[in-house]
Amino acid sequence: MATEVVLLWPRGVGSPATIDEAGLWPVFVLVVGDRQRADVPAAAPLLDLVNQHRQENELAVVAAGCRWSVVDARNALLKVTIQAQAPRRFEVEILVPARRVLGMLEVAARGATIGVTTTRQANNLGERVDIRQALHRVVLLSCEPSTELSRLARFLHSRLTPRGPKDI
Question: Is position 34 within any domain?
């Protein structure tokens, strides 16, 4: 389960992202708890990649398919399924409370770059950080567009947007 979602935007890229930028920014960094490999064997290859020592400015990029799905629309619980091919093959599912990314679901629904890191790695970043430093501490994946996530975004937007006076 993602305990936190951090949206990374480099300076100079405005919010909300354009359609062209949606595949690049924001990077949705899913922060997962620091678990022992034995506790979650399916996630062991991903956790190994997150914690692997890398040279300065070296990024961990995984060739993977990522799919968003809605686990519970009423409670806004999402799941991202990661099917990695390289550098290691693995499949892992991460639950994501949608309220953490509520204002950005439409961008995620069009396809987004996903980053995964652990609480320990995220805590090492501090308040203000260079985008390269932040990306150095995550594993980067790309996600396909999701019509189900798009429907959820529209549904939540309609529920949370104040309505004007109704004609009687």
Answer: yes
